[in-house]
Amino acid sequence: MTAPRIHPTAEVSERAVIGEGASVWHHAQVREGATIGPGCVVGKGVYVGADVRVGANCKIQNYSCVYEGTTLEDGVFVGPEVVFTNDRYPRAINPDGSLKSVDDWHVGRTTVKYGAAVGSRSVILPGMTIGRWALVAAGSVVTTDVPDHALVAGNPARPLGWVCVCARRLSDDLKCRECSRRYRREGSGLGTLEGGDTP
């Protein structure tokens, strides 16, 4: 077993769980109840909110904000300065002018599924599901669910095609020219591949 590495400048709650072999770098903050899985890399200045769940072998790059209500499954990549929001109707105060408290809002729940990647400076609205092996291009604003293996980009993010597990864009016949894996349509996304297995 390899102990996690936590930089001296990082703030990690005593009530957070950091998996074996994980690294939490300079000035990162991991709040109470958060779980960082084994083998993860949490970059400089990253914020991980209360009760956030991060699976094994994820990479969260510098200055990203993963707010309460977010779950990252195993193998998820989060580029620099990505923001996972959690309040669809944000206000600092109630209609009577009083400061909002925890009891005055409902946390939006977002899930990023196995192997997906979110590009730098993207914003993910509350309540989204980003599918397995999907790829969100840099600078996107995700306002609807993203299917498995989908490539989306823009504001709002719109589908541009499909991507392989190796992150290369698939041709129209759903074949990867880089690694020769083949896919087929399944539901709203891509399903079982041929010519190579994934978990």
Describe the structure.
The protein is an all-beta fold. The protein has strands spanning 5-6, 11-12, 17-18, 23-24, 29-30, 35-36, 41-42, 47-48, 53-54, 59-60, 65-66, 70-72, 77-78, 83-84, 110-112, 117-118, 123-124, 129-130, 135-136, 141-142, 150-153, 158-162, 185-186, 189-190. Strand 23 and strand 24 form a beta hairpin. The mean pLDDT is 94.
Number of helices: 0
Specify the overall morphology.
globular
Order of helices and strands: EEEEEEEEEEEEEEEEEEEEEEEE
Q: Structural class from helices and strands?
A: mainly beta
N-end to C-end Cα span: 24 Å
- Which spans have pLDDT < 50 for at least 5 consecutive residues? none
Which secondary structure elements does this structure contain, and how are they paired or packed?
Layout (H helix, E strand, L loop, with lengths): L4 E2 L4 E2 L4 E2 L4 E2 L4 E2 L4 E2 L4 E2 L4 E2 L4 E2 L4 E2 L4 E2 L3 E3 L4 E2 L4 E2 L25 E3 L4 E2 L4 E2 L4 E2 L4 E2 L4 E2 L7 E4 L4 E5 L22 E2 L2 E2 L9
Parallel strand pairs: 1-4, 2-5, 3-6, 4-7, 5-8, 6-9, 7-10, 8-11, 9-12, 10-13, 11-14, 12-15, 13-16, 14-17, 15-18, 16-19, 17-20, 19-21
Antiparallel strand pairs: 21-22, 23-24
